[in-house]
Amino acid sequence: MAESQIEMQTLRRRTRRILGITVLLAQLPLILHLPLWISIPGMALVLSKVLPTFDNKNLLTPLLMTPIVLLAATAIFFHYDHFFGRDPCVAFLYLLVGFKFAESKRVYDASLLIVLCAFLLTTQFFYWQTITAALLSIPAIFFIGLSLFSLQRGAAEMGTRLMVHMTSKLLLQAIPVAMVLFVAVPRITAPNWSEGGSGNSTTGLSSRMSPGSISQLSKSNEVAFRVEFGNKKPTPWDLYWRGPVLTGYDGYDWFILPNNAAKDLPQANPQGADAEVQYTITMEPTRNPWLPALDTPASLPEQVSRDGTTETIARINNERQLNSLKPLDRVTQYQASSLLTDRFIPTMSPGPENLLTTESNPQTRAWAAELRSRFPDDEQFSNQVMHWFNTQNFTYTLNPPRLGRHSIDDFLFGDRRGFCEHYAASFVFILRAAGIPARVVTGYQGGEYNGDYMIIRQSDAHAWAEAYIDGAWLRFDPTAAVAPERVEHGLNEALSNERSNDLISQISFPWLKSAQLQWDSINYAWQQVVVGFDSAQQNQIWSKLGLKKPSALTIVLVIIGAGLVWMGLILLPSSVLGRTKLDPCETQWIKFCRKFSGKGQARHQGESARDYINRLGDEWPQHRSSMNKLLTAYHAGRFSEAAQHKKTHLHYANQMKGALQHIGRAER
Question: Which helix (H) or strand (E) holds 273?
């Protein structure tokens, strides 16, 4: 049968269902990264052809397919505000695979769909490169291989168990090849797949802070970054990871103001400063420009390659905010150092933007003016405000009430229930109302040790304040005055009373926590060894093999050589170690083919057993019945589930032998 005729064959039911599972497994990892209005219909398209209820029913006719696809493309364009970018293209491919499966009927359609599934599966790595993503890919890769197997000639007579066995064997044999390619193929300096993504996809801290914004972020248990300390480990009271500095205020929201980069690092106040602390941060993708650092950076962040070369990856502005020089759209690792101090001397004096520019919150203004008349000294006034927070009946909570137009007044003189952003914003407003320059600093506070490194999660997000007093910026944390356990023991301890009313939160599973930390250790090692594998580390491997800076031709020859060695190891057992003898059914089939090859009817290359028998039957119709019996026994003895048993296998071989003898007797 011609190749084009084979491609136009109708898909068998078993093949269609295997293909459907393949598509579903390729779609599954992207559910976490796509909107539900895309992911659910995309999988529903596949289920409509897989579930027995809708099996073999054409729910989408070719006439309906074109307008539906165009409608989907238009909806994706309006959702993302553009079409040519990472997120909209992945979303469209996700739906396109579903549409293609819904209308697939022939082998040609299935072959194209398998290629699309393989590409769709790789797109999940545009969003994350964790070990979880790799594990989610394994079932899909297996079913891609199984789908290819089910499309081969003769697969109809092959048992499902045998196909699974053969696919598993081939995938296991491919693992060493994949490892060689991973190590040998030249590494690019950075992946380009994350560029051009939607700017709406951000995680972590924001450039604006409104009441409730950080408290919502703190409900997330996602990892923000991990830290390995060098010479010393800071105490919990020193773990202020500085992020966006919010100087602007419009009466309700706090936000970042444009700020030119400082020419030099701000100088830390030597009084009260501990020794310099070195640390390495491994940061998860955020698509935001700022890098976290301990409160007073003593050096600019640097990326260190495996060969020891360094590259500065950020600049610092006059507010000590570190801004990355490159997009943070993949896991980023850098080294930095900081001084453990709560004050620093800036390179320039604060401007009017650090004072009040709105007429909101009159009650707070009046209270601040009265307190200022009694404490004219800036530092005394600031400490008195901290004392007031500590002694008044304030409550630290993740569920504060809604605030009105004068949000500071409502909070300070109303319900007095709030989270860190409420306390930091109120403190800064009070100081500004008293004529003291102040600003809100957002970032993370604390962390959790997991062996040799510390995990900082989104739940560690925090906000505190800075005031300009006597020529230096001083850190004040009014949250620590209200709930000191938040700084010393973390968020869960600070909210213990609030969460004690939740029955589920009272149930503690130490083994589950231990398992989570162990899994994080595995994932961290994966990031370091696999995701972090770069060209410098690759060059070290080449050097150990005696190949310093190998040429492209040398790399190709090494890959080919390794492949040949591995093929030899695979084929050696079957050719040398006693497996040279063919099975009985295959022996009878070879005898049959040789018999008619001598008559001028050799089997064509790529011709299936059934096609060969049909061609011979047309030439010798008197032998057609015996030939068909021989073919049936051959398929049963080679590919059926029962053929795995030795006695049954010999039974089918004897049937083939009998059919071949009958053909010989008829010719005589």
Answer: none
213 and 356 belong to one structural domain:
yes
Q: How many CB atoms lie within 10 A of CB 614?
A: 16
Q: Residue 275 in contact with residue 294, Cβ under 8 Å? A: no
Whether 613 contacts 604, CB under 8 Å: no
Q: Please report whether residue 562 resides in a domain.
A: no
Q: How many domains does the chain fold into?
A: 3
Q: Say yes or no: 225 and 363 in one domain.
A: yes
> Using CA atoms, how far apart are residues 94 and 121, in angstroms rounded to an integer?
10
Q: Which residues are within 8 A (CB) of 342 and not within 5 positions of it... i.e. 6 or more apart? A: 272, 295, 474, 475
Average pLDDT of each block of 10 consecutive residues along the chain (668 residues)? 52 82 91 87 81 56 77 88 86 89 81 91 86 90 89 68 83 86 71 43 71 70 90 86 92 82 53 73 85 88 72 86 83 88 84 84 93 94 95 87 87 90 94 95 92 90 93 93 78 59 50 83 84 75 77 80 78 54 79 86 82 88 89 81 67 87 80
Longest alpha-carbon distance in the chain: 127
CA distance linking residue 639 with residue 610, whole number of Å: 14
Residue 71: domain span:
3-184
Q: Answer for the pair 244, 207: CB distance below 8 angstroms, yes or no.
A: yes
pTM of the model: 0.69
Chain center to CA of 331: 10
429, 423 Cβ separation under 8 angstroms: no
Q: What is the DSSP letter of 600?
A: T
User: Of 507, 541, 574, which closes a domain?
Assistant: 507
Same domain, yes or no, for 287 and 420? Answer: yes
What's the CA gap between 164 and 555, in Å, rounded?
34
What's the rounded Cα separation, in Å, for the pair 316 and 323? Answer: 6
